[in-house]
Here is the input.
Amino acid sequence: MKPKTNLIIFLLFLGGIFLSTATATEPEPCSGYEKGTITLKNGKTRDAYIYIDYCNPHLFQMGLRTIDEKTYKKYAKGKKIKKKAIDKYKVKEIRSFVLDSGKEFRQVKYANLFSEKNTDKLPRRQLLEVMADGKITIFKRGYRTRNGFIYKPVMDAVLEGGPEHVEFMRNNFEILYQKDKSKNPKNIRNANLKSLFGDNPEVLQKFIDGAYSFRIEFQREASFSANCDRAFMEALLEMVNDYNGTTQEALTANYYQQ
Here is the structure.
């Protein structure tokens, strides 16, 4: 074999190693179209591919952009989507939507009393992910990353960009709870746990006895405002699912990915 040929083979071999390493370490994309079903305000349903951006969750929390299957096939091949092929829905038009992955989102009204922006303290419709459902319903609320009040740690993550931004958005969010379905959900950081779980003496006693790690998580100071993270969510869901009499698979890092 000629030296020149050997050099070419060696370079191709190195290129393959670098490519496989980059692929293995490259983070999961945090945005894209996901197949799902939308339930409109009038009760009618529509199947569509819904644009979900986990790095900028306020976008789908305040409205949806969708495409049909024909357009999605073009999108999957890397072709550019024309604006006229995108259908837009305002949050007030949607009752809920469910992704084929199993994630469910519902329209709720929430007043963010932790925001420094006065208009945020008024109840506003939002599409929030349902993390647990039953006597107590738990919602996950992602942070705004543009156009409005933005927390400094969130902005720092946005400016950092890359994997750091992706990881931050997956691991930081607010948690809302709803027990009285006739009232708007409230932030878990403001919850009176005795009032929330007190009508289930067994669960409340387990909490008092330290059987739930949520006792430690709830006492742990938030890193900023009403912020919660995966550990907080997992601990809360364990207790809530006991209260609701339901089961919940353990949340992993993959759950927060696309």
